[in-house]
Amino acid sequence: MPAIRSRAASITVAATIAVAVSGGTALAQKKYDTGATDTEIKIGNIMPYSGPASAYGVIGKMEDAYFKMINEQGGINGRKINYISYDDGYSPPKAVEQARKLVESDEVLFIASSLGTPSNSAIQKYMNAKKVPQLFVATGATKFGDHKDFPWTMGWQPAYQSEGRIYAAYLLKEKPDAKVAVMYQNDDFGKDLLKGLKDGLGAKAASMIVAEESYEVSEPTIDSHIVKLKSLGADTFVSITTPKFAAQAIKKVAELGWKPVYIQSNVGASVGSVMKPAGYENGQGILSANYAKDGADSSWDNDEGMKKFYAFLAKYAPTMDRSDGSVVYGYGQAQTIVQVLKQAGDNLTRENIMKEAANLKAFAPDTLLPGVTITTTAKDFYPIEQLQMQRFKGEKWELFGPIIAGQLGE
Amino acid sequence: MSTVQEVVTEAPVIEDAIPKKAMALGPVASLVILALLIATPLFVKNFIIFQMTMWLIYAIAVLALNILTGASGQFSLGQSAFYALGAYTSAILMEHGDINYVLTLPVAGLICFIAGFLFGLPALRLSGIYLALATFALATAMPQLLKLGVFEHWTGGVQGLVVTKPDAPAILASLGLKVSQDMWLYYFTLAVSILIYIFSVNLLRSRSGRAMMAIRDNEIAASAMGVDVSLYKTLAFGVSAGITGVAGGLGAIAVQFVAPDGYTIQLAVALFLGMVVGGVGWLPGSLAGAAFIVFVPNIAESVSKGLSGAVFGVILILIIFLVPHGARQIAYGAQGLIGKLRRN
To answer: ipTM strictly over 0.90?
Structure first.
């Protein structure tokens, strides 16, 4: 008993010193909600470790590894992070069960980085009714930045609509007379990005987009869609696709001898899982947009941020593949969560967590492109809104042009 | 007392032909289980109550499959499709039609009954594994149908539809009872479950039930006795689909959300698993089977996160090896033991 008391006392002393050093910006008195104590912060997470989207499960594993490192370094303001991550198999009903388990049984302070549009849609209402933050959801669906109706939910990555608008801006500037053929995945991701593209093209959308084709994730091949789009005489091809289909499309377009201005959505632009299998020679000149550094790109080897990232991988997650976009993603998200907790200081109430999440000022995780930063306000729940255009050359993406903002927040 | 002995003496022959009385539990056991189901929520957290609600809902769906497979001998891997249809019916009626949630359930049941009955017609030509494949196709098609642009205004397309959770009726509050949404929904689900259970037991004891079982045991003999084989086969499909639809509607209300990804083939396989684990053709086993599909994945996950699927598989294989007839076998074993003790 005395041992515990003395430890608590020493932590109090440490915290007081920390407050004094930081110039008294943090409140001196400690405030806690369920899930936070003098020694621990409980963070919940839901990931598809099994099921059709299990490839994304590495995001959860990365975050777990990152928090392990933080804890070894002494935690945040003396508090260790207890990261509880559950599997929902990408099934919305299961996600609801797991979210309730986290909030009501494990009693976490907040849930972070839960993955997938369907799962997050399923728990959004519950989380907001319970007033438990649903931070940095791992999906680009635009609806997760609705601060008015859902003040307890926030996204992280650029919203798909932002990305669509950026492609539209590029086309309007570089090729205003383009005849655009769009192929999109028939789900929330595909439709959301397509909407951004159309909104960005504005009044010209109807005349510029000459064909739209959608495909189902369950289709074995999308060759026939491409043949059809080519036959319609389009000179610009926007491929709103996930990795497997992105690679198929790149191959088929090259095979047909079709040479359109080729725009590939960011989700399907990974060098390791798309460009390499599609064949580097087929991918030359393809355009895309990005916000994060590519772990497969050797030009980042001397980058300070990426050096830290690689050192972390070597020590805490040696089995992870650095060219996997999800690995880079999980690291960036974990850093953002830690930043919010640092800002919150000793006021670890759910309300303050949400307040600080909406108070990030030009925060730059190690893995984001130079110039891309995270800024949120009480009326802007879209943390990352900037992207940069990139062109595939040789065996990697070359960034070009300015950093562009997608302008969805108010 | 007498029922226990009856069942015990029948136990050895149960393996192949299931006598009609053995499809249900004896009155004492039923009352004990019912008392437990009523009392438990008063002592546990809301989260556990929610899990129990989901357990009952899946139990209803497993029971529906049990009627189809256990009683009429037809396979189905397509129950998730009817579950989805019921869920969407309830969700759409509640959110677009502003209809009371209680009233949406009979509608969901009716629509699914019709859908199941109609699907049963072409399925008549198929049997055994071919029927299983046809229903499998139904299960894989359903999530995509729900995504179709034509219905998007109603279904919300890929984004799904958020459902408002009902409050406990005001009359309870005025009586001074504090009933949370979760608890209310649990007791509501329990009431529906009991109704469906009683209906199912009576159905199987009726002429129709006997006709179905006759078809299961020997189709030619049944038709020789004057049973309208095609009618009863499609009827079994319809009833099973209707009950599954009610479960789906309840599921939508409990989860407060419907989306195509919630009703994939995995759900159909889970229900099938639940039926096998609970004991094919033994209605109370539905509860045990549903408990298996709701709770065992969580246990598997707590054993190993990365290998949860493998752990689940090991548990499943163990069960199938040790108690191939599922919960039914355990229940009869226990009854036999009690019977012996009493005689001594």
So the answer is: no
